[in-house]
Amino acid sequence: MNTMLMRAGVTGFQLAQQDFLTVDPGDPCYSKVTYILLDPSCSGSGNEQLPRRGRGKRSR
């Protein structure tokens, strides 16, 4: 996931590899979280082949 986010140009992220159902949203460590990205297991997103910046084909 880290590699995929970096290839997509995402900055300012922190990975938390844990079960989302066990997260307490009231926990102070999440007080400044503004967005979350959930990647369900077996979603296949790790298999996505992103083009490298500047080398992708232009879409119409």
TrEMBL record:
Residues 40-60 are annotated as: Disordered. The keyword S-adenosyl-L-methionine applies. One of its GO terms (biological process) is methylation. Keywords: Methyltransferase, RNA-binding, S-adenosyl-L-methionine, Transferase. InterPro entries: MeTrfase_RsmB-F_NOP2_dom (IPR001678), SAM-dependent_MTases_sf (IPR029063). Residues 1-60 form the SAM-dependent MTase RsmB/NOP-type domain. GO terms for molecular function: methyltransferase activity; RNA binding. S-adenosyl-L-methionine binds at residues 19, 39. PROSITE patterns: SAM_MT_RSMB_NOP (PS51686). The keyword S-adenosyl-L-methionine applies. Belongs to the class I-like SAM-binding methyltransferase superfamily. RsmB/NOP family. This is SAM-dependent MTase RsmB/NOP-type domain-containing protein. The lineage of its organism: Eukaryota, Metazoa, Chordata, Craniata, Vertebrata.
